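Let us work through a complete example step by step.
Step 1: write down the sequence.
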Amino acid sequence: MIRFRPLWLMTVLTLFALALLIWLGRWQWDRYETKRRAATEPVAEMTIAQYTPIPEGIQFVNGIRPDTHESGWRVFAPVQYGDTVVFVDSDWISGTQIPNAREVRFPAALRLGSPINGASIRPEPPAPLTLAPRPLQRLWFAIDLAAMGRNAGLDNVADYYIAGTYVGEDGRATRNPFALAPGADVLPPARHLGYALTWYGLALVLLGIYFAYHISVGRLGLRPPRPPED
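Step 2: predict the structure and record it as tokens.
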């Protein structure tokens, strides 16, 4: 017969940590499934021919390029499209240095009125551990179009943005590397699978430590059988 006398404080803390590890594992598993489906989904394309640029409303979103894996800032430039304001992810500033909005020029293609072509994307909600924005510096660590519009004093902001063409330093236009299907981002699906297995593995290790400790202090083990009565 098994004898088990749990240490209550250790049990409560273990259950809390176990629930957290399982939740983290489930979250990463859901991200893995979402990205695996997104890999086969098409990205909606959109073209805007007539618009009015809003140079004073430019905002910056921190990101990591999927193609080069370098960190930097995405330049979100708003344009007036009919009665709606649409943000255009139109340029890229490499490096971790914070951009100065007064020194960053509005993208030339938008100033000249060239047609805007790109993927129409509705951003995902911010991740749980996303850094807080810095509105005074126009800096964002997740795409929040409504808040970015309010920060620029703009009304009627669309719930989507256009991942427009990037123009490199050599003047060549390239497809926006952030033009990804809904649910996708810079991390490949296999990375999330690895994270999920790590969290689940830690949960198993925690259980092993919990029961091993109770065995070592004599609180978990086999109860010796009672001697037969005469």
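Step 3: interpret the result. The mean pLDDT is 88.
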